[in-house]
Amino acid sequence: MENANIINAARLSVAPMMDWTDRHCRTLHRLMSREALLYTEMVTAPALVRGQAVHLLDHSVQEHPVALQLGGSDPEELALAARMGADAGYGEINLNCGCPSDRVQSGTFGAVLMRSPRLVADCVAAMRGAVDVEVTVKCRIGVDEQVPKDVLPVFLDHIRAAGCGRVIIHARKAWLKGLSPKENREVPPLDHDLVVEMKRVFPDMHISLNGGVVSLDQAVALLDRGIDGVMIGRAAYHAPYDILGAADKVIFGTGRAPQHATDVVRAMLPYIKAHLAGGGRVHQITRHMLGMFAGRPGARAWRRVLSTGAHRDGADEGLVLEALARVQEATCGA
């Protein structure tokens, strides 16, 4: 049942994003969409297996459906990390073959693995042998001088043969030298058509497209072209209500009326209060909420109140109510 739920949820997912999609962010996102698939930040297999950093697996049942993304390139180590993730309750284990940062390359994982499809297949096979939940891959269309239309089918063929039935393809090449991670998300041209073509070539695989999707309308248009899922990254973080507020109705057809953004904010207050009671700081949560009113009256005042007040000693959920009052004042005066 969990696997069926995950596959349905993968129709729309929020991308794993380092320093962003932590458990506080995922809690906020889940309040807006009951259906969309959420991902953790990338967690490295060495951190879990050698460092025993099991706190990196912390999450709540309220976040489900949620997937764990792992980084690594050693099949045995990834298998152990995958088992730790499955034991922690994650419904999917995803292997990162798309991150281009120097730090990730130095560990011989991330986008550099696009050059080693046999190794990736070995990693997938080892992970699948260690867990009962689905093992998936997130990749690029190629790296550096590779020709995507030539190398991507070979890569997909290898991971499919290893038992990977679901893949998320970031529809850009990654340049391992010369571009920063930020530039690698923006400079290489998008090739949505190639991802759509891969669905035709590999009809038995569940293929999600990632990269350059900034609205639900665009997601629907891509789904209508035959791909199985759409993954949205920065747009879902910077303007979460625009993407997730109506996602259940528009993408999943549940008929559930979207909450107002102010309702979502108020629903976060008990969570913030509990976090503070456990010794946390309010900015650890509010930093993920800055885009809640993006493009709406009061958005600037909302961001200003949270940004300037969240790091002050004694800041609590009252700061969020103060910021919300500024939004309501602006809305009434609009």
Walkthrough of the structure:
By secondary structure, this protein is of the alpha/beta class. It folds into two domains: about 1-250, TIM Barrel; about 260-334, Up-down Bundle (Four Helix Bundle (Hemerythrin (Met), subunit A)), CATH 1.20.120. About 45% of the residues lie in helices and about 15% in strands. The protein is built from 17 helices and eight strands. It has helices at about 1-10, 25-30, 45-50, 75-85, 100-105, 115-130, 150-160, 180-185, 190-200, 215-225, 235-240, 240-245, 245-250, 260-275, 285, 300-310, 315-334, and strands at about 10-15, 40-45, 65-70, 90-95, 135-140, 165-170, 205-210, 230. Strands 1-8-7-6-5-4-3-2 form an eight-stranded parallel sheet, with helices on both faces. Helix 16 (about 300-310) packs antiparallel against helix 17 (about 315-334). The model has no long low-confidence stretch (mean pLDDT about 95).
| Overall pLDDT | 93
Strand order of the largest sheet: 1-8-7-6-5-4-3-2
CATH superfamily of the largest domain: Aldolase class I
Number of helices: 17
Strand content: 5-15%
Low-confidence stretches: none
H/E element order? HEHEHEHEHHEHEHHEHEHHHHHHH
How many individual β-strands? 8
CATH architecture annotation of the largest domain: Alpha-Beta Barrel
The backbone outline, from C-alpha atoms, is globular
| Percent of residues in helices | 40-55%
What is the top-level CATH class of the largest domain? Alpha Beta
Largest sheet, strands/sense/barrel: 8 strands, parallel
**CA distance, first residue to last residue:** 47 Å
What Rg is obtained from the alpha carbons, in whole angstroms?
20 Å
